[in-house]
């Protein structure tokens, strides 16, 4: 119950620290990027003189200007009038009715009846407005006409009105149309007075036959307004030149794009906050399974250094097509992460750094708050080149080579981007860009080499580069081991070969296992003659009691740990040196003591431990015993080697030596196979040369 409570408390502490570390990353990103993306505002008034050229930071629609253009387009559309063809029929019917009324009055009139009475009859049959078409004298002429003349007049009038009314007649064209109707009667066989009356009647019958179509007019105006393209203020467009007056229109556009200090809240900060959270989401997901915060703390430090470097370079002057962003050593952050934390996290760092860098150094349009695709490609190419170019076996020379490769990739990507833009650059600008791209790669290598030992010391990280340095035979401890205990040195080299291959077979850290093996028996240098691999001649243990021999043998672990700590070797190597025997039993001296007395405690002849805590320590524990056992064979064969390997592994399992590490039975099978393959390669059979056989016969 107590252990469970401790686990809960530790988990809460880990989550608490992790929360603050991610909060620190978010604040860092927000602070660095906000000064680039925040909208710049000006304190200007109408009719002020612009002190600098002001460009639009965004692309927005000028709705007021668009509405004005639409109104102008609608005003240019003429009214739509529709031809009413039925008007011609109606006016022809009207004339027919008039002549029919005249004919009926003539038929009903008594001979010699006065015309005044006939007009009175006609008035009874026609509406007053129709009677107003002609004067009384003109009506009398029509009533006095003979039936033949009246018939001729009717046909001529109907024909003239129908012909004229078949065409479009607007109010403006009415007089012309009426004149044409009267002209149609010029060739009619009528007396001049009668023709004049009929012509006047035709003129009155002709009316406009087109009417205003409101729906069609509004539709045409709507179409004209729809054809007007929105007026947009483009991102980067000059709103006012330096020295120009701030007119009403300029002031309105400045206010529209948000460049005037209006006191209204800006949503830029909220947008940037969401952007930062999206960038950090992959990191939060990546570190979700970590039980400690050492890696996240180290990553926070590297990311802080990367963003601080970008921010400092951002302060340098930049002009024209030569953006200072091409000088950023974008690869040093991913390279450090690749060395210290792994390739997958380095790729994520490359992507996040490329997005942030492109936002921070965007100068293509002279505005803030936009992402430059060119810089994203440039930063991605350099960062990925630095990540993938670093080999598994790291050394300073390899980091320098990676920096040169990054510089080459930067230059190639830079030229590809310049060609894609189809821009025209002067030789000076191209030379400066190439110089900056090359310097970016070189600076990445310099920063990586310079910061790596600082980070290793600050966070206690054992990097591959540090392991390579520790594997140098000229290290003081290895030279001490070689000169004072050469047998142990050779034994350590053999165990290193076995352990490295076995660790790589199960996915453990082979390089750590190799270097740890070099130092795991360094404590034997205190009393080298008491260990069999260093003995020439007699064995000093033959003259010692089993208890004293046991104390000497077991002491080499503590002596080695003390020596490693004195020389400040990494904790991982010290832990393996302390755990490489676990709590195994010194069987030889235990049984020797049992032969002398029966009252011997087995616990007294066991190593103090602790047991192996990692896969690497477990593999070294097995490989150490396997190498010593196989070396003691007079004529090792594949069968004997495999039997020894599997018996030692079975003994470790039965003795519960592997209970505290996370190695599985499947992985132990892989370890056994790897050890057998390596040992079979070392102890393979050799042919016996003739000279050797002759020499043997001669001595026999």
TrEMBL record:
SUPFAM superfamilies: HD-domain/PDEase-like. It comes from the Bacteria. Keywords: Membrane, Transmembrane, Transmembrane helix. It holds the Pfam family 7TM-7TMR_HD. InterPro entries: HD/PDEase_dom (IPR003607), HD_domain (IPR006674), HDIG_dom (IPR006675), Metal-dep_PHydrolase_7TM_extra (IPR011624), Metal-dep_PHydrolase_7TM_intra (IPR011621), PgpH_phosphodiesterase (IPR052722). Residues 488-629 form the HD domain. The chain crosses the membrane at residues 20-37, 267-287, 296-316, 322-340, 368-390, 402-420, 432-455. NCBIfam families: HDIG. This is Membrane protein. It comes from Geobacillus thermopakistaniensis (strain MAS1).
């Amino acid at each position: 119950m107590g252990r469970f409570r401790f686990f809960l408390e530790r988990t809460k502490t880990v989550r608490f620290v992790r929360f603050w570390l991610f909060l620190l990353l978010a604040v860092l990103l927000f602070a660095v990027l906000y000064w680039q993306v925040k909208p710049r505002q000006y304190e200007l008034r109408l009719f002020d003189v612009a002190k600098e050229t002001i460009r639009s930071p965004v692309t927005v629609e000028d709705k007021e200007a668009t509405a004005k253009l639409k109104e102008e387009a609608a005003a240019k559309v003429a009214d739509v009038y529709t031809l009413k063809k039925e008007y011609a029929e109606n006016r022809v019917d009207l004339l027919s009715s008039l002549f029919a009324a005249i004919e009926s009055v003539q038929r009903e009139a008594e001979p010699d009846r006065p015309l005044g009475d006939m007009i009175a009859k006609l008035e009874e049959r026609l509406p007053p407005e129709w009677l107003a078409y002609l004067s009384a004298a003109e009506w009398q002429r029509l009533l006095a006409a003979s039936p033949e003349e009246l018939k001729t007049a009717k046909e001529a009038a109907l024909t003239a009105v129908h012909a004229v009314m078949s065409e479009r007649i607007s109010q403006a064209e009415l007089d012309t149309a009426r004149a044409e109707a009267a002209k149609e009667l010029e060739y009619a066989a009528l007396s001049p007075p009668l023709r004049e009356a009929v012509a006047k009647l035709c003129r009155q019958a002709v009316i406009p036959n087109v009417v205003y179509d409101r729906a069609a007019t509004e539709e045409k105006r709507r179409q004209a307004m729809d054809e007007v393209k929105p007026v947009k203020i483009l991102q980067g467009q000059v709103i006012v030149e330096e020295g120009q007056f701030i007119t009403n229109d300029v002031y309105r556009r400045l206010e529209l794009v948000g460049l005037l200090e209006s006191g209204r809240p800006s949503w830029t900060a909220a947008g940037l906050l969401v952007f930062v959270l999206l960038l950090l989401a992959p990191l939060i997901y990546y570190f979700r399974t970590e039980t400690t915060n050492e890696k996240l703390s180290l990553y926070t430090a590297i990311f802080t250094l990367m963003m601080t470097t970008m921010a400092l370079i951002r302060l340098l002057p930049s002009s024209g097509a030569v953006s200072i962003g091409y000088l950023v050593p974008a690869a040093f952050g991913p390279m450090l992460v690749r060395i210290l934390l792994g390739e997958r996290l380095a790729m994520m760092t490359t992507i996040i750094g490329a997005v942030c860098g492109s936002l921070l150094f965007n100068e293509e349009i002279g505005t803030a708050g936009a992402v430059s695709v060119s810089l994203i490609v440039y930063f991605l190419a350099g960062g990925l080149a630095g990540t993938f170019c670093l080999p598994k076996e790291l050394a300073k020379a390899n980091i320098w080579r990676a920096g040169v490769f990054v510089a080459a990739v930067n230059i190639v990507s830079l030229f590809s981007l310049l060609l894609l833009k189809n821009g025209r650059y002067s030789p000076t600008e191209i030379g400066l860009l190439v110089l900056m791209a090359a310097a970016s790669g070189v600076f990445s290598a310099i920063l990586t080499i310079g910061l790596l030992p600082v980070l290793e010391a600050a966070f206690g990280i054992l990097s591959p580069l540090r392991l390579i340095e520790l594997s140098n035979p000229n290290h003081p401890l290895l030279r001490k081991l070689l000169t004072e205990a050469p047998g142990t040195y050779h034994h350590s080299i053999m165990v290193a070969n076995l352990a490295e291959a076995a660790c790589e077979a199960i996915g453990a850290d082979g390089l750590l296992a190799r270097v740890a093996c070099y130092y795991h028996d360094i404590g034997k240098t205190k009393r080298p003659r008491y260990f069999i691999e260093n003995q020439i001649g007699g064995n000093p243990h033959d003259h010692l009691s089993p208890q004293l021999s046991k104390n000497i043998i077991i002491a080499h672990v503590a002596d080695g740990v003390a020596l490693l700590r004195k020389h400040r070797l990494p904790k991982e190597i010290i832990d393996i040196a302390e755990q490489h025997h676990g709590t195994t039993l010194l069987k030889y001296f235990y049984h020797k003591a049992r032969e002398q007395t029966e009252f011997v405690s087995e616990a007294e002849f066991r190593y103090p431990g602790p047991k192996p805590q990692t896969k690497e320590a477990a593999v070294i524990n097995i490989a150490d015993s396997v190498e010593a056992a196989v070396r003691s064979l007079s004529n090792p064969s594949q069968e004997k080697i495999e039997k020894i390997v599997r018996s030692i592994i079975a003994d470790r399992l039965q003795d519960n030596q592997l209970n505290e590490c996370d190695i599985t039975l499947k992985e132990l099978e892989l370890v056994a196979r790897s050890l057998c393959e390596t040992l079979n390669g070392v102890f393979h059979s050799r042919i016996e040369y003739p000279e050797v056989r002759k020499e043997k016969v001669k001595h026999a």
